[in-house]
Write a structure and sequence with these properties.
Number of helices: 11
Number of domains: 3
Radius of gyration: 21 Å
Order of helices and strands: HHHHHHEEEEEEEHEEHHHH
Number of strands: 9
CATH class of the largest domain: Mainly Alpha
Cofactor: FAD
Largest sheet: 4 strands, antiparallel
CATH architecture of the largest domain: Up-down Bundle
Family: Belongs to the acyl-CoA dehydrogenase family.
CATH topology of the largest domain: Butyryl-CoA Dehydrogenase, subunit A, domain 3
GO molecular function: fatty-acyl-CoA binding; flavin adenine dinucleotide binding; glutaryl-CoA dehydrogenase activity
Strand content: 5-15%
Structural class: alpha+beta
Helix content: 40-55%
Keywords: FAD, Flavoprotein, Oxidoreductase, Transit peptide
Shape: globular
Strand order of the largest sheet: 2-3-7-6
Pfam families: Acyl-CoA_dh_1, Acyl-CoA_dh_M, Acyl-CoA_dh_N
Length: about 400
């Protein structure tokens, strides 16, 4: 039997490894992005805003995107692979869109779902799943990124209440959030707090002048004598295990999402090279251009196989946090290189917002850094291989 030609969009036939439900989730998110975000996102990026974020959140809630991998409380209960495919499609549209979904579901909602009281879960998770309430996650500080255990934000008891003081930085969704999960030092160790953003003493100024993730809300959280009742604390965890567990969830989404940005850039370059002529023929017909395409396709689809392997392990309850570092380090590193190489194929047109390539390049500069820099994930893997810690 003669084999059909290879599909340049899926040269390894990886789609055959997904079941019907997984493909249905992927296609639903792909349609949503094509209809509701893709026509506008370049303009949002150029303007440095996501003007319809609250409206968009409600629509994302209606398709079950928020906290989709969580069980109960209005969440979809999707598999890890289904969630990964959704992240890939969101980031194929824009990293800022995937960040909105990821911070909501894998950081803010996940923290409450995993470590919160039943009252906290009932109060917040159904509204967050529906997109009626947006959440943010306060861990990173101006002077403490890769070393969050050195955070200065602190909480002290005042009778049965807690008083929070400190400052968090680079907070996705901050100024549009209804609730913030804030991590602070206490006499007992690091604790998480569920903080309604209308609490007196909390302000959320936006961060401007960004050259990356421009179609995303990024803010500070400034806590000045924020008084919270005793029931605001997350009761299920004490210590850095709490925020680091949440970060592991977000990193898993990035393993998939970064490949979406890479896929969009590669497909854009393929389409461009087929019609752009130099020296009398399409540039796709030149050997150096084909070498670029071959290298990009190999790395993209190797990354997808890695993401799928980690997703299957996660669904089987066998995924180790160090294995997520393998995925985050490799896939983001290769994705940004694919986007940069795609830019070279588009030449000067590659820097224009008429094409999505430079937008993805600059967005991935942030993705390369957040939820653990490449250096941190390298050292996580190094420790796993040698048994020796080299962070200090």
């Amino acid at each position: 039997m003669a084999l059909a030609p290879i599909d340049p969009r899926d040269p390894l036939g990886i789609d055959d490894l997904f079941d019907a439900e997984e493909l249905a989730v992927r296609d639903t998110v792909r349609r949503f992005c094509a209809e509701r975000v893709a026509p506008y996102v370049a303009d949002w990026f150029e303007r440095g805003e996501m003007p319809t974020v609250r409206e968009l959140a409600l629509e994302l809630g209606r398709i079950g995107a928020f906290g989709m991998h969580l069980e109960g409380y209005g969440c979809a209960g999707a598999s890890a692979v289904q969630y990964g495919l959704a992240c890939l499609e969101f980031e194929a549209c824009d990293s800022g869109l995937r960040s909105l979904v990821s911070v909501q579901g894998s950081l803010a909602m996940f923290a409450i779902h995993r470590f919160g009281s039943e009252e906290q879960k009932q109060e917040w998770l159904p509204r967050m799943a529906a997109g009626e309430a947006i959440g943010c996650f306060g861990l990173t500080e101006p002077d403490h990124g890769s070393d969050p255990a050195s955070m200065r934000t602190h909480a002290k008891r005042d009778g049965t209440d807690w008083i929070l003081d400190g400052r968090k930085m680079w907070i996705t969704n901050g100024s549009v959030a209804s609730v913030a999960v804030v991590w602070a030092r206490t006499d007992e160790g690091v604790r998480g707090f569920v903080v309604p953003t209308d609490t007196p003493g909390l302000s959320t100024p936006d961060i401007h002048h960004k050259m990356s993730l421009r179609a995303s809300v990024t803010s500070e959280l400034v806590l000045d004598q924020v008084r919270l009742p005793a029931e605001a604390v997350l009761p299920g965890v004490v210590g850095m295990r709490g925020p680091l567990t949440c970060l592991g969830e977000a990193r898993y989404g990035i393993v998939w999402g970064s490949l979406g940005a890479a896929r969009t850039c590669l497909e854009t370059a393929l389409d461009y090279a087929a019609t752009r002529e130099q020296f009398g023929k399409p540039i796709a017909g030149f050997q150096l251009t084909q070498a670029k395409f071959a290298d990009m396709a190999v790395e993209l689809h190797k990354g997808l196989l890695l993401a799928l392997h980690l997703g299957r392990r996660k669904d089987a309850g066998k995924l180790h946090p160090d294995q997520v570092s393998f995925g985050k380090l490799n896939n983001v590193r290769e994705a940004i290189e694919i986007c940069r190489t795609s830019r070279t194929i588009l030449g000067a047109n590659g820097i224009s917002l008429e094409y999505p390539v430079m937008r993805h390049v600059t967005n991935l500069e942030s993705v390369l850094t957040y939820e653990g820099t490449s250096e941190m994930h390298t050292l996580v893997i190094g420790k796993a291989l040698t048994g020796l810690e080299a962070f200090r």
